[in-house]
Amino acid sequence: AGAVLDSEGALVRNNPAEKKVYLIFSAHELCEGGKIVAQTLKKHKAKGSFFLTGTFYNNPGNKSLINELIAGGHYLGAHSDGHLLYSDWTKRDSSLVSQKQFSEDLKANYKKMEAFRLTPEKASVFLPPYEWYNAESVDWSRQMGLKVINFTPGIRSNADYTTPEMINYRSSETIMNDIKTFEKKDQNGLNGCILLIHLGTAPERTDKFYNRLGELLTWLKKNGYSTERF
Question: Among 71, 85, 180, 190, which one has the highest count of C-beta atoms within 10 angstroms of its own C-beta?
């Protein structure tokens, strides 16, 4: 009952035999939900993993939030320096960056993390920008001593970035129901699942899923799940 990897070699689900859920949060330029998320996790004594770009770490306005998350015992990792798109949306196997561009961008991300005493050794789990990558970028990460993860397919909490005019728009109520439906239908429930929530979304989306994090945590606990960090 080991870890589940996707076709590109990224970890998309930890041990399906354990009632543990991994909540992951990503952010680049938007993070208006940061404080709410930090406070909600604290209130529920839950641990999360935060994947942040160099742009995010470098923004003075995010400093107190980053320090609060570190003090709260959460995992803080890299999400690329400038939020690069690694591979073509339609032809996944065709890389849009060279290995040199890839590694320089990631090193720049870690360089900005140094200000918070976060080292690649302490933060070796990595969420690629746009949650999009291919076997090549997973291999390049491995060569740098990093382990690529992604959200568990089918849960769809990652659709919390969508805005009402988008064809794939999902309301927070729909997302909450998607999570519960997945839990019912999957033979292992949410065991080992990785759920992605965005720390910030476009202002056009007023129905923010992070506002329902407390409700989600209460439901997970009621159903016997613990929340773990990487």
Answer: 190
